[in-house]
Amino acid sequence: MAQFGFENDIHSILKLDMPITNAPMARWQRKASSSNAAALSGLSPGKSANASLGSSKTPSKTPGKNKKVTPSKMGGDRFIPTRNSKQMDVASFLLSKENEPVDANNSTSTAESQKAWSMSLNGYNLEDAKILHLGGKPLNAPEGYQNNLKVLYSQGATPASVKKTRYISSSPDRILDAPELRNDFYLNLLDWSSRNVLAVALHNSVYLLDATQGDVTFLMSLEREEDYVCSLSWTKEGTYLAIGTSDCKIQLWDVYNQKRLRSMSSHTSRVVSLSWNDHVLSSGSRSGHIHHHDVRVADHHIFTLTGHSQEVCGLQWSPDGRYLASGGNDNMVYVWPRVQEGTASQSVRSWSEHQGAVKALAWCPWQPNILASGGGTSDRHIRIWNVNSGSCISSLDTQSQISSLVFAPNYKELVSAHGYAHNNVVIWKYPALSRVAELNGHEDRVLSLILSPDCSTVATVAGDETIRLWKSFEMDPVKKAKERLVKSTSGVIHQSIR
After folding, report:
1. How many CB atoms lie within 10 A of CB 311?
2. For 419-430, what is each residue's pLDDT tens digit?
3. Interstrand relation of 280-285 and 458-462 (parallel, antiparallel or unpaired)
4. Distance, CA of 92 to CA of 126 (rounded, Å)
5. Dist CA 295 CA 220 (whole Å)
6. What's the pLDDT score for residue 114?
7. WD repeats: which residues (predicted)?
8. Residue (of 370, 376, 308) closest to 345 by Cα position
9. What is the Cα–Cα distance from 429 to 448, expressed in whole angstroms?
10. Into how many domains does the chain fold?
11. Which of 68, 121, 264, 362 is deepest in the core (most CB within 10 A)?
């Protein structure tokens, strides 16, 4: 029986038109079946033993391929964040292309192509991107753009770096009565000596105020009641006082001995302005003439300057003694050279820009070639002149009559006294001529303005018969100590050189 069974198997194998029953299952059959029972369903019942034997010999899976390689879903089994490197790419591009030469012919096309590439790659124009932004407000980011970086530097001032402004009191430090003061715009009735003594003329008398002690001393009075004092001027040392009067004379007084040294006559009309240059005293009168007096000699009148056609109401020598500035009721400003024997009396400069009487004149202490002048009611302008070039540096309409000007070196400012219509004192920042402060209090026009020897206080006299002392320029104690140290050091060096 076994022989017949073997022959039947050989016979079935040799028959090619019959299906192969012991071959491995097809792939579609393996996927359709879920168990061994499904795998056996494709075989005939009589060949179950051979089918099991064939299935055991041929594995259903490839050896070594037990793990599934291809994922069943797109994306992966864990989240990996996308890191934005756009800004780093832009920064690298800017650094690498910064110093490359630009072709003039292709500059337009290159800029357009760079913009197009930037818009397509980065989403914004490359020209709007900056590595560091140091000035002003930060640029606005594109809409929807998120940047975790913070601005490290800004231009805004921190509270510690804000410069502190000094306090300027709106009320005077002292108020003094000045009875019988002549309310005349053209007169110069106030002057402050280097020894801190204030001289004021009240009608035909002169009084002295010791600003340190506060004592008031009567100095002199004119013999005739109808005569009056027109001008005052201290010498540089502060020991002698020149007094111009309405009877065409100039008196020279030794203040500390209360003695009149001499009386000089040369003018034909009242003497309304005086200014010292060492031993030479210059005087201006209503006749329009300016006289130079050498007080050391008997024949004191040494020179006459002719240029003004009306009263010379303003007269100031420059700090270095090179030039004499004069202003008159003829609206003219003249600059005269230093007195020298054998030279002609020709002015160095002459300006006619003012439309009113020029009484207010002031030389800049830290710029000897700078002169400030102020016009009367019809002009009301402050003008800054450069004597070397002859040009007007700046001009400002104050909207009020200007009676006096003075430079305050402690804060590099210019102070102006005004008559109609404001009757006040204004402090201006130099050279910008921006308004710093206003000093109000006088009830009539301010006639004269003078600075103290330490440059911390300004004195004003007005038609309301009052003298007011304004402490508006006191220096910071720290800055003052530094200046004293510098002065002492320079003094020691000077002594060692001697």
Report:
1. 21
2. 998 999 999 999
3. unpaired
4. 12
5. 20
6. 75
7. 222-263, 305-336, 376-395, 439-471
8. 308
9. 20
10. 1
11. 362
